[in-house]
TrEMBL record:
Pfam families: Bmp (PF02608). It comes from the Bacteria. This is Basic membrane lipoprotein. It comes from Denitrovibrio acetiphilus (strain DSM 12809 / NBRC 114555 / N2460). Keywords: Lipoprotein, Signal. InterPro entries: ABC-Purine-Binding, PnrA-like. Residues 42-329 form the ABC transporter substrate-binding protein PnrA-like domain. The keyword ATP-binding does not apply. GO terms for cellular component: plasma membrane.
Length: 370
């Protein structure tokens, strides 16, 4: 009996030892593979405006700083105020030549330059913001900003007294058009009598032009100013005239404390962290990232205390519906501002259709410049 017990103990010990050897070998192999593919990150950013713009470029730089805290990110750098076009080719090339292995180009006009430079540096990972062209070492990323745009429109529709809301818009590209339309759909969902008047500035960053655009909108009875621009200049015009303001990119409440309502804002830190981790561990592949409220890429900022509690609660209810997928901003029926049906009842625009949007919805007063 003692011998049998001893044999049983020895057998159990061998079984346990045998079972533990294989996972140990596998875990060591996995660790070796990870160590082999993992690499330190040297990241560079190309900015279209100055980091002090308080808007678009500033929001990206906040994201850069978040990513820079990752232990494997050994260096980050940026070049600000880089013109879109030929000059950006030179800048992007110089960054690749300096050994940066992850390069972010953060404006639509950098799309073709990014593709051009990437073809010469296949070992470098490039990520282009808001574009639609990619290659083996070029991916794209953006956020579904139309979701918080819609929410800010709901807020504007609730808060306007004159039923005229002004919108200072940059360039007539699908990104900007999509934002105007989402905002207007939000406005009209709660206030079908309100209209959104649009003035195009044809610039991302020009405080004087942005301010002039807002002034012209205030002159035609707008009591709320929204914008798709890179600085708070349009909002400051609203503040000066006693109107209300809805920002963009970041929280600009300090610049316009009396006018401030809220803003659709970016959370680039989560995006840049995700990309850097994938490049570091060797899992990155070219793809088109387009996250929304649910993914944490975009949000609506905390709302001003001047907004009634019931209005704030309603906006947050709509936010929850968007995050859960219950509410789709561009679901039909939707008419354009010429009376034509743009989206049929019961249908929702595809990502491709939204990314190529080239019409203005009913309720927008203005045209898309040729």
């Amino acid at each position: 009996m003692k011998k049998l017990m001893l044999l049983a103990v020895i057998s159990a010990f061998l079984a346990i030892t045998g079972c533990s050897d294989k996972p140990k070998e596998e875990s060591q192999t996995e660790a070796a593979k990870t160590a082999e593919t993992a690499k330190d990150i040297k990241a560079a950013f190309v900015y279209v405006g100055p980091v002090g713009d308080a808007g678009w470029t500033y929001s990206h730089d906040l994201g850069r700083k978040v990513m820079a805290e990752l232990p494997f990110v050994k260096e980050t750098n940026y070049i600000e105020s880089v013109p879109e076009g030929a000059e950006s080719v030179r800048i992007i090339t110089s960054l690749a030549q300096k050994g940066y292995n992850l390069i972010f180009t953060t404006s639509f006009g950098y799309m073709d330059p990014t593709i051009e430079v990437a073809s010469k540096f296949p070992e470098v990972t490039f990520m282009h913001c808001s574009g639609y062209k990619s290659s083996d070492n070029v991916g794209t990323y953006f956020g579904r900003m139309y979701q918080p745009r819609y929410l800010s429109g709901v807020l504007a529709g609730k808060m306007t007294k004159t039923n005229v809301i002004g919108y200072a818009a940059a360039f007539p590209i699908p990104e900007v058009i999509r934002g105007i339309n989402a905002f207007t759909l939000g406005v009209r969902s709660v206030n079908p009598d309100a209209v959104v008047k649009v003035v195009w500035t044809q610039t991302w960053f020009d405080p004087a032009k942005e301010r002039d655009a807002a002034e012209s909108l205030l002159d035609v009875n707008s009591d709320i100013i929204a914008m798709h621009q890179d600085t708070p200049a349009a909002l400051q015009a609203a503040e000066k005239r006693g109107a209300l303001a809805i920002g963009y990119n970041t929280v600009m409440q300090e610049q316009v404390p009396n006018a401030w309502l809220t803003a659709p804002v970016w959370n680039w830190g989560s995006v840049y962290t995700k990309i850097a981790e994938e490049v570091h561990d060797g899992t990155w592949k070219s793809q088109d990232l387009w996250g929304g409220i649910a993914e944490g890429y975009v949000d609506i900022s905390p709302m001003s205390d001047k907004i009634p509690a019931d209005v704030q609660a309603y906006v947050l209810e709509q936010k929850a519906k968007i995050a859960s997928g219950e509410l789709h901003v561009f679901s039909g029926e939707i008419k354009d501002n010429k009376g034509n049906i743009a989206v049929e009842a019961g249908k929702t625009m595809t990502d491709g259709e939204m990314l190529g949007m080239n019409f203005l919805v009913e309720g927008v007063q203005g045209n898309i410049p040729g």
